[in-house]
Every structure is written in structure tokens, then in C-alpha cells.
Amino acid sequence: MAVNAIPVDQRVIDIDSRRFASIEKALVELVTNADDSYTHLEQGGEQVSGAILVRYERHRRGALLTVTDQAEGLSFDKACAILSYGGAHSLLAQGRAGGRGYFGRGLKQAIFGLGYGWLETIREGRLARVELFRGEDGAYLYDDGGHDREATAADRERLGIARDGTRVAIVIDSPQASISQFGALVHALANNIYLRDVLDRRELEVMHLKDGVEVERSGRVRFEEPPAVVLLGPEAPGQFQYEHRSWPFTLTLKRALDAELVARGDERSSGLLVLSGTAVLDCQFFDYENQVGTEYLFGTVRCPALVDRLAAGEAVISDERAGLNPKAPIVAAFYRAVSRMIAPHVQAEQDKLRHLERATTSGRTAHMIEHLLERMNLAAIHDFGIVHPPVPADETVSEAASAEAPLRFTTPFYYRRPDHPFHVRLLVDPRQLDADAVLNVEVTASAGLRIEPPPAPVPVASLGSETAVSWTVTGLAAGERGEIVVRAGAYLAWCELVIAEHASGHAHHPTPHPGRPGRHRPPRDHGEAMFAGYAFRWLGKEADRAVYSPEERLILINTAAPTVQLYVDGRGNFRDSARLLLAELFLDAIADELARYRIARAGRAGDVEAFLAAKREIVCRYGSDIHLSFLGG
User: Fold this and answer.
1) How high is the pLDDT of residue 482?
2) What is the pLDDT of residues 154-213, one digit of tens each?
3) In the predicted model, is pLDDT for residue 554 greater than 50?
4) HSE, side-chain direction, 13 A CA sphere, residue 351
5) Residue 134 CA, distance from chain mean position
6) Rounded Cα–Cα distance for residues 62 and 38 (Å)
7) How far, in Å, CA of 97 to CA of 269, rounded?
8) Other CB atoms within 10 A of residue 319 CB
9) Sign (positive/negative) of CA torsion 539, 540, 544, 546?
């Protein structure tokens, strides 16, 4: 047995391997190693199959991963030599621009980052096996068996190698490694930016094993490009100046059609894939990286000079091998040239946003806005007595309110004793509601308030001939309290529940008090929503950032306003990071409308000073609630 330490400072392996505790990253290295080997054969004029087979056997706490190619294979001496760190083993490290490998670290990182493993390789009829593992003291070791031997027919059948080739096996036992599902692993490989070009020229398949038996196979793994239109190219020629000469490149830029592109990570689908020779060096938007207007754009840039200069020793790649190094003079010149070519198309995308008719919010932000509008609708009815639709000038409030409301509780205030069950009744007029309307019930209550049956959405159609919905409520102790709010379309009603020690034990059935004609106050416990919703619309640059539309009862956010455009991305999504801006816009529009109503009711319509004073009071009263509702998400 020839057991030796990996010839390098063991701490270097430790640092490198921790960065590789990912099945997907390990596979990128092993697959591109196989691709490099096929490329070497092709450069020598040989025909190759390009077959790369990944076998994946997943267990509950680990997995077995193998990658097999039918490429050059390695001699015994070469198999042992590649274990040295920093050696010139890849085509690229040897100054030959055809390869991708980055200075001989990939294989060892892949194995030690996930656990341990072995390499079996056949070249010119000889089989060599090298095992890589860690000793009891944590040292990184390898065992080459001392020699190679003749490959038998049984070896070839076991390894699946007809002539020459290599199989790398890794036992994944690292606690840092996530054990992917088979489907997720195939998806990750198909979308990995560093494999995208490899998948076009090689036949990569993934086999799923269970207890050593094949249960499914992926078929050829390919990247599926989204439907798109070509904006530039294909392979539009460009050039940049460096060291007093011109260096050519080609660029293809496309715009996806209604597809959501991934903007980050190794599975990124937006951005320009930077290709040089057979190497994928980066995926980015150069001077427009992370800028609005690039969300739907993607494509490729091919520049042979980059890998040529990298092979010559220039620092084209960043120290962490995480993409291009913009500090390198050749890369800086390349950046400027590519950015100039794509600039008109990014600008066109940005111009579209400036005329964006619609925008959307995330589900979480939309939920917060819905909660906010409900709170302000309650305030408009309860605190301001606003009636919708507005009362005609020749009709009294009492006459307008004489018709039965679509929703109302028999009383807005239930004041009851502990341990005395009582009924809460909601009166419903189905004739005034849509046929498919649903009563949405929201309860805010202390822990000792029991409500039976538990409140749940009630389709109005399910009520049949019933015109009321009832709940039985019990308060376990004095001091318990709660509120029930019911919504159906634009209508809402609510009641308050309070449990007190000395409350009456009898139900009270209030009836309207007769009063002087025309002096009835509007109801404060039910009504029609003043703020039915919101919408993003292009209102022109002269309009305010947010306005209230009385006809639609909507708060309209003006997408023409520059401050709004800053927070809408290329997909028309309002960024969650701009919630405080949304809070400010909603507060401004709501305070405007409530102040206008208040001064009109006081007979001071058109009085600017009165309007501003009323608006300041409303902002002070509700501003904190509105901002906190957005910060709370």
C-alpha cells in the first residue's frame, strides 16, 4: 500500500475544500474536467463520443456520486501527479487556451469538499486507481496502490468504459453538504452557467440509482433558453483596444418574452454569458449590472483573447475565481466595449419603465396594503361618518340610510358578563351582494374569548333563505375583549366585544331613536368601503405621485413619477425595499381625501388653510399606524 499525504500545506486543502461543500459545484468541476479531456482529443483530430454519465445514489444521510467519461484516461504516473496542488495539469494552466480547468485544484476540491472518494482510469489498456481520504489525525491522504495493472473485460463492464476514460467516485458524508433530490440535481445542472456551453457540445446524462439499481434516467441534460426576441446579433461583431491593437469579440443580446429570469447565482438566466475558447468565465451585465432595465435581457459574449491572455499569465480572473477581474487592464477595456454595445438596448428597457401603465407588488406587500386599507375604511366610516355613495344634496342622511344595509350587526357593541354565553348576529341582505360574494370574517380577540363556530369564510349563496349569521361567544374572565370585522366586496361591518364583571346578563336589542328630520347621524359600524383598493397607473409627469379616484374608489400610484420609477423593476414589480415610500404615498392620498371631506362637511370647502390644518391632524392621528403596518411585514 502506497499511502501518502497530498503534497501541499494541509491547511490550504482545508480552506479550499470548505468552499466546495456542494454537489453541484463538485459536478461542475468533474464535468468540465471531462470536457477538457474530450477537447484535447478533438484538437488531435480524433472523433469523440462526448458522453458524460453522472450516477447519483441518494441515501438519507449521504450519497454516492460518480462521473464517467470516455475521453483520454490517465496513465498511472499522471493520475498520481495531478494530486499536487498548483501543478500545471489543466490545458489552461499549461498555457494552452483550449481548456477551462483552473490550475489543478478542481478534482481534489470536489472530493474533499464532499467527503472522500477514488479515481479509476483506463489508458492504453492499463487501469490505475487512486483513493483520496482523510487520516485519523485529519490529514489529507491518497493511496495509489503502488502500481497500475492491465484492465480486464470485467473492469470495463463495471466502469462502463469501452476504451479509454475515467470514473471519479465520491462518497458524500460531509455534514455541510446538502443531499439534493434527483430532480433538483438535474435542474441545477441544466441551468448552471458554467455548464451551459458544455451541455451544447457534450452528451451529459444523469442516472438515479437505488441500492445500486437504476430507477430513472434524465435523458440528455440541456439548458432550455426562454422564448425571446433577438435585439443584437446573433454574433454581432465588436472590438476593443488594448496594448495598441484591436481584439475582436461577438455579442448576442436577447429579450425574454414574458418569462421570469433568474438574476443571481450559478443558475442565473439573465445576463451575458462570457465565453472564451471552451471556458465560461462569467455571467453579468458589465456597467449595467444590477441596474433597472436588464431584468429581461440575456445573451452571450465570445472573446477568444481573454483565455489567451489568461493562459499567458494575466490576471483575467478574480482571485476567488468568481468571474472576471475588472481591475485587469484588458478586462477593463473589454467591459467598456461591451457596455457601449448594449447601452441603447438597456436604455430602451428603462424608457419602457418610464411609461409603465401597470405595476405589481409582492404577495406580502399586497397583503399589508389590504390590511392598511381595511383599517382606513373603518376609520372613514367610524371616525368621519363617510357614507358611500355620497348623499344627494336634496336628500337627508336619514333618508339615504333608511334602506337596509347589505351587512350590519344587530348591535355594534356587545358588553357582557364572564361565563355567560351570548349570541352575536350579523344581518345580511343577499340581494345587494354579488351572487358569488363571500363573507370574509376577521377576528381580533384576547385569548379568553371563545367564539363558536370558529369564524371562517361564508359564501353568501350558502345562506339560502337565511338572512343572518350567528356566533356564540363566551368570555372566560373580566377584561377579555375583541372585534369582529366582516367584509363582502366593498361592504363591511364590525362590532366590538367587551367582557366586564358587572355587565348585564340580559341581551339588549337596540332600535333606532326617532329624531328630528334630517338630523340622523350616519351609521358608524357598517358601510361601504371608501378605499376599495389601489392601482399603479401612468398619470403623466404633472400629476402627483399618488391620488384618490372617487369614481373608482381607488388610490392610484403614478408610475410616471420619478421617485416611483426608481422602485419598479423591469418586470413591473414594486420592490419590497420601498415599502416606506408606499406608506408615504398612501398616507398622503388618504389624508388628502379625508381632509377634503372634513372641511366640506364643515362648510369650508376651498379653504386652503383649513384643508392643510385638517390634513396635518389626520397625518398625526393615523401616520404612525400606516407606517407601522408596512414596517411590520
Assistant:
1) 92
2) 999 999 999 999 999 999 998 888 888 999 999 999 999 999 999 999 999 999 999 889
3) yes
4) 6
5) 39
6) 31
7) 26
8) 7
9) positive
187 DSSP 8-state letter: H
Determine the 3-state secondary structure of 255 from DSSP. Answer: strand
The set of residues, in sequence order, having a beta carbon less than 8 Å from that of 303 and lying 6+ positions away, is: 247, 248, 249, 274, 275, 276, 334
Cell of 580: 416606506
Could you report the per-residue pLDDT of 579-629, keeping only the tens digit for each?
A: 778 788 888 888 998 998 888 888 888 888 999 999 888 888 888 877 777
Strand partners, 528: 491
List Cα–Cα distances, 354 to 162, 289, 340, in angstroms.
Answer: 61, 19, 22
Q: Please name which of 143, 94, 139 lies closest in space to residue 119, comparing C-alpha atoms.
A: 143
pLDDT of residue 97: 45
Three-state secondary structure call for residue 99:
coil
Listed in sequence order, the residues at least 6 apart from 72 whose beta carbon sits closer than 8 Å to its beta carbon are 37, 40, 41, 123, 164, 165, 166
Model pTM score: 0.61
Q: State the Cα–Cα distance between residues 315 and 76, nearest whole angstrom.
A: 33
According to the model, what pLDDT value does residue 525 have? 64
Grid-cell match 351582494, residue found:
433
- Torsion of Cα atoms, 56 then 59 then 61 then 63, to 10°: -20
Residue 87 has pLDDT above 50, yes or no: no
C-alpha span between 604 and 588 (Å, rounded): 20
> Which residue, chain included where needed, has cell 362590532?
495
Q: Measure CA of the first residue to CA of the last residue in the chain; give whole Å.
A: 62
Distance, CA of 321 to CA of 314 (rounded, Å): 13
User: How far are the Cα atoms of 170, 358, 544, 568 from residue 574, in angstroms, in the given order?
Assistant: 45, 10, 18, 5
- Pick from 85, 123, 326: which is nearest to 93 by CA? 85
SS (H, E, C) 283-298: EECHHHCCCCCCCCEE
Q: Which of the four pLDDT bands, split at 50, 70 and 90, describes residue 88?
A: very low
132 CB burial (10 A radius; 0-12, 13-18, 19+): buried
Phi and psi at residue 472, in whole multiples of 5°? -105, 125
Grid coordinates representing 486?
366582516
> What angle is formed at CA 528 by the lines to CA 527 and CA 533, rounded to 5 degrees?
140
- Which three three-digit cell numbers place residue 160? 462502463
User: Among 366-375, 468-477, 541-550, which stretch is predicted with the lowest mean pLDDT?
Assistant: 366-375
Q: Bridge partners of 546?
A: 557
Q: Report the pLDDT averaged over residues 288-314.
A: 88
- Antiparallel, parallel or unpaired: β 526-528 and 481-488: unpaired
**Pick from 503, 451, 449, 500: nearest CA to 479:** 500
Residue 106 has pLDDT above 90, yes or no: no
Does an H or E element contain 452, and which?
Answer: strand 449-452
Residue 310: what are its φ and ψ, rounded to 5°? -65, -40
**Phi, psi at 436, each rounded to 5°:** -100, 15
Pick from 78-87, 435-444, 477-486: least confident? 78-87
In degrees and rounded to multiples of 5, residue 245 shows phi and psi of -145, 165
Please check whether residue 135 is in contact with residue 141, taking contact to mean a CB–CB distance below 8 angstroms: yes
Report the pLDDT value the prediction gives residue 396, as an integer from 0 to 100: 47
Identity of the residue numbered 632:
G
Q: Pairing mode, if any, of strands 3-5 and 51-58?
A: unpaired
The identity of residue 112, as a single letter, is F
**Burial bucket for residue 565 (CB in 10 Å: 0-12, 13-18, 19+):** middle
* Cell output for 343: 447601452
CA 535 from centre of chain: 23
